[in-house]
Structure prediction request, 807 residues.
Amino acid sequence: MTTARLAPPNWLPTVVGLGSGVLVLVGVEILVRLGAINRFIVPLPSEIVLSFARVITEEDIPRRLVQTAWECLAASLLLTVFGVAIGALMHRVRLIRLACETWVAAFASAPLVLAYPLFLVLFGRSTLTIIMLAFLSGLPPVILKTVEGLTATRRVLINVGRSFKLTPAQQFWKILFPSALPTIFVGIRLGMIFALINVVAVEFLINFGGLGQLINELAERYDLPGTYAAISFVVLISIVFFIVTERAERWLRS
Amino acid sequence: MAVAATSDRVVPAPQTEPAILVVDDLVMRFVTGDGGVTALDHVSFKVKPGEFLAVIGPSGCGKSTLFSIVGGLLSGYQGSVSVAGHSIAGPHASIGMVFQEESTFPWRNVVDNVCFPLEIAGMPKAERIDRARHFISMVGLDGFEKRYPSELSGGMRQRVSMARTLASEPKILLMDEPFAALDEQTRLLLGDKVLQIQQQLKQTTLLITHNITEAVQLADRILVMTYRPGRVKRIVDIDLPRPRSSEIVSSEAFGRYVAQIWSDLREEASRGMVDDETRKLHAHDATEKRS
Amino acid sequence: MAEIVTRAPATRPWVSGVTLLRVAIVLFALVAWEVMADSGLFYRGVVPSLSAIGAALVKLLSTGDFYWNVGVTAEEIAIGLAIGGICGVIAGLVIGGNRFIAQAFEPYLYYLGPTPKIVFFPVMIMWFGVGGGSKIAMGAVSCFFPIALSVAAGMRQIDPVLIRVGFSFRANAWQMATKIYLPAMRHPIVNGLRLGLGVALIGTLLAETKLSNRGLGFLVIQAYNSFNMPLLYAILVVLFVIAIGINAVMARLVRLDDARRN
Prediction:
């Protein structure tokens, strides 16, 4: 007779995971204090935590956050509207879809952000450059997922529409589009994540904008704890963003 | 409670009224990789107003093709289909279709699903909700108006589809094995519901099915089809009393009708099986030769 | 019986229709470009003529300097991919192999994955200096996450029977890893490597554009700083062709491998 192993409580793994993270930080703190790690390369974790408050107030984090957020929002809006429109067009005109779908997929794998110097020349060191790069980077997944969602509409639902003599426009808005919405949202979510990543990256690279620029600035000032704090802050924001969009996607699927 | 629009259905004496649906000499061929196949071979029949006609046949007899053609979803056939004297060429407002597969819109709740054809027709909101509720009640789904299809069982979802089609008040109701995916008990009960509705609305109905019990339970006449190429093998008048209920299945007359139809069908069904096996054998030989 | 679909014979014209449209689009783009370049609408030189770009491209590809820089970048990417890849595979094996560990630590990978890794670059510079080390580190950090996640997911979809077979022969951890887990996961690993290569490429190149005096990224910034637009376009064209080309080749390999195994 075998004894069943008691399953560990639900929260235990999460606690262990987070706990290990804390332990690592404590370990680093000790090592730096002992001098085993050069404190000009790795500042004391406690110092980093303390500098959070300073960075938030002195470096005007709220304004920077708003700026980065606004850039993301603009890019997200653009990629949603254009992505769905182009995707719908590709679905409607089969020839365009056959010709261009692989191109869009290839474009998705292209490292567009590498062309940021070009965008600098075209649009200057401005918000527009950031928005354009983020918009174009996030566009392909929206297009591809829109085409995928529309194409996967169940045949019988299309036939229901035909049996009620729907016009092509009605067929699209009342049947195809609602049916494809969950898949389209997956694409929009991917696009938004790419947009966020590229917004912050380009802000960092061109030293302009909100949070990304902050990291760059603090690094150039050799404010070590501040730089680490700013980086942590950005990582935190991106995680929150990721989780929020994940929840939204799951809600839409239900 | 009764909504005005549904009461102007006149019940004619069946013998004198002209047919509302006329299918004339229908021939449908499909071109496939290995030659072609004739799905329907000179099929003709008439349906009178208020009549319930069941079309029964083995798999492969072209029933679903017939359903699609009469519904206007399929073209490229020879012959004609006319409703109330007018030849149809494409989906027609007076033909309502209930499909075999799951066809409710998952993103709309029950009342919005049923409102769909009324919405398309431009009916004002209050009126269409009222009308929809009437039909939701008719299929026995009172209280479920705000639920979404994912919260309903398969049988309930088919009822929603039916209510939706009925809401458009078609002259002819076309159903393609709507209960195929349901279990026997649910089928019988839903069959009861369909009987009730059809009797109440005097709805002309064309039901495609492979289930003999269902056909005899519901129909005034049964069209038995042959295996491919599909032809009308026999038309059987079902002289069981109306109004009916599912209790009729235990009567002697019922049993006789079922036996009669089965003997017709069995012949066709076994032809279908032999044909299937021959084809599988040929396909197997072909792949063997290629490897 | 389900709806019968009319199977019409394949119509030949579609094939050439697609090619025709593609050619038309490309031609239209090229012509539009040339028109914009000559129109003078844009600030001088921002949109150079195709011939200027072409000339710069030819010149670029014929200098040994270019290939040396490509070599530098390639080396950085390769080493970064190797380091990130090995760490990623190990992390993936560990996390994928044990449910508790997965629940405890995979969230780190999952949530840290979609963050802009380039922001870690200042830290990499502090730790590894301003030379190649920081670029390699950038590449390694970038590709670690997708590879680890792919491997972990791959671990989970291994048929448990295979694992039990390994245990029944009393294989030790190393043998299990090399003889059972890794071969069974070829597809997820290769796919993870394809993704990893993509992000390692981006990470390394971006790092080079930010702070470097060698490599392809450096060439890009150099062209930008000297406002040599034709050269900038030329380098970018080469870069994109390489990046898309590598991705396409790897995708092809994955598909061929799949086809061979099925």
Q: What stands out?
A: The domain at 72-218 of chain C is CATH 1.10.3720.10 (MetI-like fold). Residues 1-7 of chain C have pLDDT under 50 and may be disordered. Chain C touches chain A through 53 residues (CB under 8 Å).
